[in-house]
Amino acid sequence: MSWLKNWTWPTRLRDKGIVGMNRRNIRYIGRYNARRLYPLVDDKLKTKLLAQQYGITTPELIGTVTTQFGVKHMSEMLIGHHGFVVKPAKGSGGKGILVIEKVENGLFYKPSGASLTMEDIERHVSNLLSGLYSLGGSPDVAVIETLINFDESLLEYTYEGVPDIRVIVFKGYPVMAMMRLSTAASDGKANLHQGAVGVGLNIATGAALRGVQFDRPCYSHPDTGHDLASLVVPQWETLLHLAAGCYEMTGLGYLGTDMVLDRKHGPMLLELNARPGLAIQMTNGEGLRRRLDLIERQPDNVPVAKRVAFAQHHFARKSELTDTPDTPSATA
C-alpha cells in the first residue's frame, strides 16, 4: 500500500508530522520572517546583489531592462552571448522565465528547439516589464543572466532543462531537501505543479530518497528512463553550507533556497523564497514538523559548519527507491 493512502485522515497527517499551510504561515513564516526583509528575496535582482556582497556565487548578470525604451537596446546587450536567461525580478513559480540555449543566424533557440526572433524576445520582455508575470501584477524589471551549464553527471536525470535543488532552511539549519527534474510535461521547467519530477534527498549524503510526479510515486525519469535510485547530488557539503549561510545573509528564519550545480562554478544560488511551498514533504515521504521542533530547541548563534553537521546527523534517511516495482514506470 502506498504511503499516500496512509495519510488520508487528518490525525494520520499529524502523526506523520505534516506541516500544513496555516501552521507554516503562522508558526514559522509569521514568527521568524520579518516582513521588512521580504524585498531581499521577493526581488531576484536584490537577492543577486546581496549574494555578491556575501561572496555567494550566482549566475553572471548580463544586464537589466527597466523601461520600455530600454527594450529596443536588448540586441546590443546580447551581443557575444550564445545563451542566456530572461526572468522577471519579482516573478514566482517559474512564470515568465525564458531560456535561450543557443543563438544562430539571428534566431534564438529554446531548449525544446523552438526558435524565436529578436522581436519575440523584445515582446516577451515588454510583457514582463508591464507586470504580466510579477507578484500582484506590479511593474517589473527584466533580469538577463548567463546560461547555466549544469553538471554533466545530472544529464540523464533531466529533460530540456536545468535541474535545481531546493533546501528548506530553518534558523540556519538545512531541514529538508529535494531536487526538481524538468520533463517534457513541464516544458523543460523544474516546476512540480507543471509536471517536473520531485526527488527527495537525504540531508546526510545528497542521495535520492524517493521520487514523485503529479503526486504519485516515480522510480525513473519519464523521458530519459534513467533510474532515480542512482541519483546523488555532487558537492553536497558545499551546497548545504551555501544554503545554511543564506540565514545570515537575509536574516530570514524560515526560507527556501533554490540552487543549481554549474559544471564550471559548482553550486550556485538561483533565488530565495520567504514562503517556500510544502510539496517537499511529499517528495521526502516525511513531514517537516519533527525536524522543525528539534531545531527550535537548539541554541542561537551556532556556526554554519555545526548547523550543517547537526542536520546531517539528525535528519539522515534511508532511500525508498531501492524497492522499485518489477517494471519501473514514471507513475508506478
From TrEMBL:
Pfam families per record: ATPgrasp_ST
Every ATP-grasp domain range: 48-303
Key words of the record: ATP-binding, Manganese, Nucleotide-binding
Top-level taxonomic group: Bacteria
SUPFAM superfamilies xrefs: Glutathione synthetase ATP-binding domain-like
InterPro entries associated with the record: ATP-grasp, RimK-rel_E_lig, RimK-rel_E_lig_ATP-grasp
PANTHER family tied to this protein: BETA-CITRYLGLUTAMATE SYNTHASE B-RELATED, RIBOSOMAL PROTEIN S6 MODIFICATION PROTEIN
Protein name: Alpha-L-glutamate ligase-like protein
Species this protein is from: Vreelandella lutescens
